[in-house]
Amino acid sequence: MTDAPLQLFNSLTRQLEEFQPIHPGEARVYSCGPTVYNYQHIGNMRAYVFADTLGRVLQWRGYKLTHVINITDVGHLTSDADEGEDKMEKMAARENKSAWDIAKFYQQDFERDLARLNVQPKQHPRATEYVEAMIAWGERIADKHCYELDSGLYFDVSTVDDYGRLARAVTDDGEGRIDTVEGKRNQADFAIWRKTPAGETRQMEWESPWGRGAPGWHLECSVMGEKLLGFPFDIHTGGIDHREIHHPNEIAQNQAYCCTNGLDDARNSGARIWMHNNFLVERSGKMSKSACEFLRLQLLIDKGYHPLAYRLMCLQAHYRSELEFSWEGLQAARTRLMRFVRQFDDLRASVGSHLKFLKEHADTVDDAIRLGTPLDNELTDPAIIGVLEEFSAAIADDLNTSAALVAMDKLIALKRADQVQKASALLTMMEVLGLDNLENGGFLTPSNLRIRPKDAQLTEAEIEAELLRRKEARAAKDFATSDAIRDSLAAKGVEVMDGDPLGWEWRL
Ligand code: AMP
Ligand code: ZN
């Protein structure tokens, strides 16, 4: 099999570019992480499903991946610009906790959601651990690029070439609007350091050459990206909102720091490729963090959906397209995932004895299937090679996961294919898309995908035990008992589905 070159859309050059690693054999990726003052909504999580899928694709293509998702634990302000209240301190006051406790709590919650979505482990540097480096960065650029006001140290965007080349929506009153801070030289100038107002004390503040205060938000990503990945690194990702203010400001700081200007040299912007995922939208406003029950992964789980059904839902859209959330859409994604998982489950059951290397290399069928993925050497079935090539070509085309999923549908529809090769090919595809694993490292099984709302009256084990009893009664032609079990389950909200072609067998 030959792999087509990996083409990725670079928001900075506004075109598809072939991925060429800066360090041979390596891929270094920085993804803007959350501000941990609250739970993440499922829209935020779309950004990390995208970033993780990108990372998996790079690994599949043989690159050694270093991937950072930072944690913004310094409260930046309630607007992208430099006005408003400090989010972290505001939440701390509301919950009657320290800002540090707030950050710790929501970081843990975020990391739990990442694991549930099968996002591979990444580095999670915290901004508060890099404040010294941020001050040093500020000192290096202050003379040539910054000016001081009562409220802090500001970056003068007119001191770099091409400010805002990345942004699309910057207009006087459009998406890129920046609130005015009195004394700013240009409307787009932004804070490198925010001084604590005289007479006030913040929970999170540090001494600096510009007075006691806290770093500006944009600075942290520049600093952590440079420290952990080195300039230039390969790919910088974030949600599409970051294309307008946060990333242009990061780029301006990077230009200043690199002491050279034009953006045609990748080093100056910090990264070679800038990628942005489009938004998950929800028309009724439930995704707003100010909504009382906003849409977060836990809510989906409480309603009985497996988190990977949400991951698949994200993958069904191209990352650069807007995706509308609906429960029907989530349900459809779950059904599709169920088909993959059932097929994989059946294959695992049937191929074990055929795997010639089972004894030599692996103790279990699952290990053998995992090990059986050096597909280039093993694959001989032309039908399977064909769908794998289709899958690979879709991924190479700017991560067209929705087309890749169609190739997966075709794979599972192959009736007379070699079972071992089919299992290996399916596992490869599931691994690339991050649909392979549960949090505990086991494979997804059909029972993981049953709808099991939090308020269900029976546990899965109880239902399975009853169904087994019913099966035995039917085998013994004791239809009275069989019907009684069916009725008693129905009374507890469990519908038994005899002869269901998808093999779900029961639903709540
Ligand atoms: P924030 O904590 O607001 O900085 O957001 C964390 C990440 O989620 C950033 O990359 C945002 O661009 C991204 N993001 C925010 N809202 C959405 C959304 N509705 N859909 C997709 N990504 C989003
Ligand atoms: Zn960032």
Give your account of this protein's structure.
The chain is an alpha/beta fold and 508 residues long. The chain has 18 helices and 14 strands. It has helices at residues 42-60, 87-95, 99-116, 131-145, 217-229, 246-258, 266-269, 297-302, 307-315, 327-351, 358-361, 365-371, 375-378, 382-396, 401-413, 419-433, 460-475, 479-491, and strands at residues 7-10, 15-18, 26-31, 64-69, 146-149, 152-155, 190-195, 213-215, 233-239, 271-277, 280-281, 323-324, 495-496, 506-507. Strands 4-3-9-10 form a 4-stranded parallel β-sheet, with helices on both faces. The protein has a 4-stranded antiparallel β-sheet with strand order 5-6-7-8. The radius of gyration is 26 Å and the shape is globular. The model is unreliable at 171-177 and 373-377 (pLDDT under 50). The site of adenosine monophosphate has 14 residues, from helix 1 and strand 9.
Task: List the keywords.
508 residues, alpha/beta, four-stranded parallel sheet, 12% strand, binds adenosine monophosphate, binds zinc ion
Summarize the helices and strands and which ones pair or pack.
Elements: E1 7-10, E2 15-18, E3 26-31, H1 42-60, E4 64-69, H2 87-95, H3 99-116, H4 131-145, E5 146-149, E6 152-155, E7 190-195, E8 213-215, H5 217-229, E9 233-239, H6 246-258, H7 266-269, E10 271-277, E11 280-281, H8 297-302, H9 307-315, E12 323-324, H10 327-351, H11 358-361, H12 365-371, H13 375-378, H14 382-396, H15 401-413, H16 419-433, H17 460-475, H18 479-491, E13 495-496, E14 506-507
Parallel strand pairs: 3-4, 3-9, 9-10, 11-12
Antiparallel strand pairs: 1-2, 5-6, 6-7, 7-8, 13-14
Helix pairs in contact: 2-3, 5-6, 9-10, 10-16, 14-15, 15-16, 17-18
Bound molecules: adenosine monophosphate and zinc ion.
